[in-house]
Specification:
It is a single chain. With 69 residues, the protein is mainly alpha-helical. It has one domain. The protein has helices at residues 8-14, 19-24, 40-46, 53-67. The relative contact order is 0.23.
Length: 69
């Protein structure tokens, strides 16, 4: 389960299928080699997406649910 406190490194390691959706939200750009550290919440704040954080977390968890069915 994804929470706002998950470390980005853990998210990428445990749920590689979420890398593209996270990038689609504008949180990371792995294609351009942007280093990513800290939690999902810290990254959202850095990218000025903190208002959407709950929505992002919910959508990421929905993706995981559909993939495990």
């Amino acid at each position: 389960m994804i929470t706002k406190n998950i470390y980005i490194e853990d998210l990428v390691e445990r749920y590689p299928e979420l890398i593209s959706p996270v990038a689609d939200f504008g949180l990371i750009c792995l294609r351009c080699g942007e280093p990513v550290w800290g939690t999902l919440e810290e990254l959202a704040e850095e990218k000025n997406l903190q208002e959407r954080l709950d929505e992002i977390v919910n959508q990421l968890n929905d993706i995981l649910k559909t993939q495990t069915k």
